[in-house]
Amino acid sequence: MKLNARDASGYFARPDPDKTGLLIYGADGMRIALKRQEVIAALVGPKGEEEMRLSRMPAAEIRRDPAMLSDAIKAVGFFPGPRVVFVEDATEAQAPAILPALEDWQPGDAQVVITAGQLKPTSKLRKFFEGHKNAYAAAIYDNPPTRAEIEAELSRAGLRNLPQESLRDLSTLAMALDPGDFRQTLEKLVLYKHGDESPVIPEDIAAVAPATTEAEIDEMLDIVAEAKTGEIGPLMQRLRAQGVQPVSLCIGMMRHFRTLYAVAAAPGGPAEGIGRVRPPIFGPRRDLVLRQAQNWGAPKLQDALTAITETDLALRSAAQTAPQMALVERTLIRLAMMARR
Fold first, then answer.
1. Distance between CA 126 and CA 59 in Å, rounded?
2. pLDDT in tens, 60-117
3. Could you tell me what percentage of the chain is helix, strand and coil, using 3-state DSSP and rounding each to the nearest 5?
4. Domains contained in the chain, CATH given
């Protein structure tokens, strides 16, 4: 039987131990691994591997010795409880060795969990699981987890006080990170809030999110966008000491002011624009960028982008003799003064 995306999420959390097996396939190996870990843990429990109720085998080995899968499925465990045979990285080439063991499955045998990459609709493995009355096939797509999945994941870890604003920021973060990094971020958030019963707030999420390598440049751009001209010089000295290049600052300026323009010029207004920005902006920075875009307005941001483009062309010009960092600093001050108008 085929599991659609919504049903698959529920089944991975609460799988049926009496089924013949489950095929999980798709293009993203990390997402498949996370789902496989979830369903196996739900089937055998935290002590399943310790109690030898979980058998692992690469699909390539089954092709060389087809009997090993049948033996593992029929084996009687010493400890009571559901048993699982996990077959990893199956391909269509191993189907002739895998399917006979599944066809011979009887109630009381170990459930078989198989992971695979992309499988065509004509795949023998897919057709077997999709057409079987006592087995499931689930395709894993390259979609970030939904709010419901994030909430369920944190709830299982004991973190339940999640306001909608925090769920929104976590959903945004899930779109920006790969699945493994996002799972680590959720784990860090659970540890960060351990013993703290207060609601999860955007500042908590920002505290555990992966730090950007451009944090110093972002600080400078925020100073400029908020017209804090007096703070440009000291921070500029710090950036020079850290070896930040003028071109990097110019690229950062262009990126930041293009983002502000995209937010300010959105047809539905800045509140709609901030939700359409890619990569997504989350946490306290979301409110900061939204405020900056509203304060500047689209016409003034167009002038700012023109000034940045002129600076970029000057940096690239072979005839330019002025110090490059001085050119960039002058543009930063000019933009900060522009913000005051």
1. 15
2. 999 999 899 999 999 987 888 899 999 999 999 999 999 999 999 999 999 999 999 9
3. 60, 10, 30
4. 2-140 (3.40.50.300), 147-208 (no CATH), 215-339 (1.20.272.10)
